Structure of Protein kinase domain-containing protein:
Amino acid sequence: GTAVANASLLFLERFGTGTDSTVYRAIDSFSCSPQICAVRCSPKSEPYALQSARRRGAFLHREASMAHPHIIRFRRLVQEDSRIFLLMDFCPSGNLHDAIQRRVFEGDNGKVKVAFAPLLDALEECHRLGIYHQNIKLSNILCSEDGSHLWLSGFTYATTDETSPNYRYLSGPHVSPESLQRVPYSVARGFSTAKNDIWALGIILLGILTGSYPWTLADCQVESFRKY
């Protein structure tokens, strides 16, 4: 495999691909004992603003992961050849989307309660620290093979701002209605980053329980949300 960071990081295989990054399984030999880790890699020639967001998100992820066991542990950041590599603990069973596809939670509300409660605690701890995730979705929640443990991940867009006017990266069924740009009062005043996180986690809970989202976007122009 390919090695970077003075050969201290050896890539083994591609594990997943997201909208703005690729995740690899790798061996991190930076410490005395080499360990398997997950590496989230940014694209080449990424805009400076997004690289800055990744570095800020990495700092906030590290701070949050030291505070709660259900936030996936952040290891270190490596920057080389205009690319950013974010190293964290490896979860071989994948994310919550994979678990729902495997029907891990189907018909077992008790398992959902046991797994989801610590995730709520993890988000509460983030907010207590003044860290707001802003990109909570199925692919950013890692899941154990049996569905008994969930871990929050994917802090690229995390912020310490209690309100935000930044709408450009928000999309999908998990996004709160007030954070959508076409809502007049949110454009004028920004939206609550904490409430946006809480809304997202609530929609994800619905997804776990029912196997699907109730709408594609929380917008009155979308019929399913308008009926709600």
User: Anything to note?
Assistant: The radius of gyration is 18 Å. The longest strand covers residues 9-17.
